[in-house]
């Protein structure tokens, strides 16, 4: 049957990409349908119940700055929060939260159910309705046809999913969920390049069977940092500790002795796994000289005894998993509640997408999340939001939007994927961003919320909070700049102990804030305060301090961007034959012919395409005109 209502945007898959896509399109006023296998698993964390980390929290804050769900759900569900790299510069500082997986799902589901313009429907999708080269809707496994103007596909690890535990294999989208095989076959018949990747998860352990007295305790930070710009400490549930255990020589012996029973080492798994989240068998094999690996024992929630032993993801047979776990000090009597496993799945070459995440071959069809070769909830959520935005913009008949690499990690993520593709599950790192001093997690709102507001993603409450913060920063900077400290004054005396030499001239507070020895807290109450009040908003204080201390570096980076921008927009004709560009090596010609970058800047970011090659392209384009 044809479902009676027609939708603007149909999102398939209620994981991290699909939920952000559906929420974004609905926030932008589109009649949106989220079709998913199971409403109970909306927002389910397939693996580690943790959000954020280096490079990843940057994405979460960007999703949040654009009105998305992940940051708020994390603040409502986080049971341990920490700032990573706290002693390093602000560009690489990151927030990580251990989440209660039940609370996280409930929070996401609550946001979805209460979102105007959004309809949920539970059923697997087996087919897409494609008319010529344009998608028109989706067909569920019982034959219900949903018609829509745009479709966003966010099917995660479910396409052609095969689960491995030792040499046993069975089909599945993740443990306990069916794969999406009919849809996988349908997509393989369309002209996309498809390949296989794999990922894995550790066994889960019953906390009652663990001796915590011999493990190192790792408490969270106090006060607990916030993930959302709209978050508050009061939202955070009870906070708990994680613990640290270690593998040992005996653990490694067990693994070595059983490598022939590992699907990875016996050649059963074809897909490439995540380099930065390797299985324990991979770590022991690749770093054979390391005597021990850390295992973070992380709670899965406040109302469950299950623990997630982060660091021993494995697809070894169950009997070996048990031996491995029980070889670890503190886990000698551990009971495994769920075996670890690896999963192989289809992904589509992201070079077949545009920056809007629309596919190049089928109009109005967008791909987001793990289906594009990424790994991680944050990478999926960010892509989902972008695809949802661009599907909504298509419905409105407006041009697509994608932030540039100097505006957002989201821009870096999409640009990397589209320009270079990926041969292994792609995860975000701060090192992937050449302008990371500008793309800090603390300023994602200052970079993106205004754009989000103009797109229709940001509601009045967030806009009001953001506007007040932005204004407070400017006012406080002006006050600091206008407040002078005289040498020999009582204020200068208060600072003397912190400075190598007493002040020898008049300084304003903003100048003093740039000095490495002084922090905002040392200066804020020195001579009056913002509007005569205490500056209690820690986020305003943080911005004032970071902007002052890093101003020189930030300006230099901005200068580089401005230089690049002069050429960034230079378009590369779609029919350009790179073999005809003189001076390019054959390797670079091949890469450019394969990647078909849309602009000169994109060409320059393809690995192996040197600045000299970009200059040759520019000369060629000028001659061609
Ligand atoms: P998913 O979260 O997989 O969601 C897909 C959704 O689509 C599901 O709700 C599913 O039911 C639905 N769906 C699929 N097909 C259909 C269909 N035909 N019709 C209707 N609904 C459909 N990431 C890391 O960063 N580190 C790790 O160590 C890690 N380990 C992992 C281990 C395992 C075993 C798995 C399964 C994943 C792991 N991940 C890991 C990846 C992480 O879970 C994903 O990156 C993230 O969940 C991707 O989000 P997504 O929205 O793209 O897809």
UniProtKB/TrEMBL annotation:
Keyword tRNA-binding among UniProt keywords? no
PROSITE patterns associated with the record: GIDA_1 (PS01280), GIDA_2 (PS01281)
Provide the residue positions that the database annotates as binding NAD(+): 273-287
| Binding of FAD, residues | 13-18
- Positions of transmembrane segments: none
Q: Which cofactor does the UniProt annotation name? A: FAD
Keyword annotations:
Cytoplasm, FAD, Flavoprotein, NAD, tRNA processing
Q: Please identify the protein, giving its name as recorded.
A: tRNA uridine 5-carboxymethylaminomethyl modification enzyme MnmG
Organism for this UniProt entry: Modicisalibacter zincidurans
What gene is this protein a product of?
A: mnmG
